[in-house]
Design a protein that fits this description.
Layout: H1 2-9, E1 18-22, E2 26-33, E3 44-49, E4 52-59, H2 63-73, H3 81-87, E5 96-98, E6 116-118, H4 126-152, E7 159-162, H5 169-179, E8 183-186, H6 191-199, E9 209-213, H7 220-231
Length: 232
C-alpha cells in the first residue's frame, strides 16, 4: 500500500518509529515491530514491510481545510498563503476549528460529525480562523498519536513527516507543541514514491532530514478546547 511504502521511504524500520503524510487528509503509520497490535482506539493493524507490522490511522480532512478557506471563504489566495496569515497572530484567539466536513476519521470514527468553528468573538479575524485551521490539522494528528501510544505501549521518539503541507513551518511547530514530540521533516517530501522505489531496489537514495521542530510550548488549554469541541 502507499502508506506502507511511505513508512519505508521514511526509514521507520524500528518499533515506535512513525510517519505522517500531510495531504488532503493525513495518514499516520507507526511501526510496531514483529507483533500485530489489536487496537482499542479505532486504529488499523496492518503489515508494514517484510516481518514488521504497523498501526495506521487516517484523518479525512487536513489540507482540504486549507483548500476550503481558499475556495469557499476566500480568505487566502493560494494554499501557501495560510502560513503568513496564521503567523500574523500569536494564537487563535480562542477560536477552535474542527474540520469534520466529511465526518471524523481515526480515532473517533464518527461519520455524522460535521465541521464547526467555535469561540468566535467580535475580535476574531481571518488570521485567527487560519491559525485555528492549522491547529485543527495538528490536533487531529495528536489524537491519533495518543491512540497509537496507548495501543502499542511504545514510546514515540519522533514523528517523521512528508507531503505538501509538511512544508508549512508554522504547522510543523504547532504539531510538535500539541503532540509533545520532535517533528522531523524529510528532505524528500514524496516519500511514498521513494519508498516504493527503494523496496523495488531501484534506488539507493538514503533518507535524510530537511528540518527538525522541537516542542516549545505545552498548549494544554488548546488541547482541552479541542477535546470539548470534538465531543459536541
Amino acid at each position: 500500500g502507499d502508506q506502507q511504502a511511505a513508512l519505508f521511504g521514511q526509514q521507520c524500520t524500528e518499533p515506535g518509529m512513525a510517519k505522517n503524510t500531510y495531504g488532503t487528509g493525513c495518514f499516520i503509520v507507526m511501526n510496531t515491530g514483529s507483533r500485530a497490535v489489536t487496537s482499542g482506539h479505532g486504529l488499523l493493524a496492518t503489515v508494514a514491510c517484510e516481518d514488521d507490522y504497523a498501526l495506521e490511522g487516517s484523518i479525512f480532512v487536513a489540507g482540504a481545510a486549507v483548500q476550503w478557506l481558499r475556495d469557499n471563504l476566500k480568505i487566502i489566495r493560494t494554499a501557501a498563503d495560510i502560513e503568513g496569515l496564521a503567523a500574523s497572530v500569536p494564537d487563535s484567539g480562542g477560536v477552535t476549528f474542527v474540520p469534520a466536513f466529511t465526518g471524523l476519521g481515526a480515532p473517533h470514527w464518527d461519520p455524522y460529525a460535521r465541521g464547526t468553528i467555535s469561540g468566535l468573538t467580535r475580535g476574531s479575524t481571518s488570521a485567527h480562523i487560519a491559525r485555528a485551521a492549522l491547529e485543527g490539522i495538528a490536533l487531529q494528528t495528536a489524537d491519533v498519536l495518543d491512540a497509537m501510544r496507548a495501543d502499542s505501549g511504545l514510546e514515540l521518539p519522533e514523528l517523521r513527516v512528508d507531503g505538501a503541507a509538511s512544508r508549512n513551518d508554522l504547522l510543523m511547530q504547532i504539531q510538535a507543541d500539541v503532540a509533545r514530540v520532535r517533528i522531523v521533516r524529510a528532505a524528500v517530501s514524496e516519500t511514498t514514491a521513494l519508498g516504493a522505489a527503494c523496496l523495488a531496489g531501484l534506488t539507493g537514495v538514503a533518507w535524510k532530514a530537511d528540518r527538525i521542530f522541537e516542542p516549545r510550548t505545552e498548549l494544554r488549554e488548546l488541547k482541552e478546547r479541542w477535546s470539548r469541541a470534538v465531543v459536541k
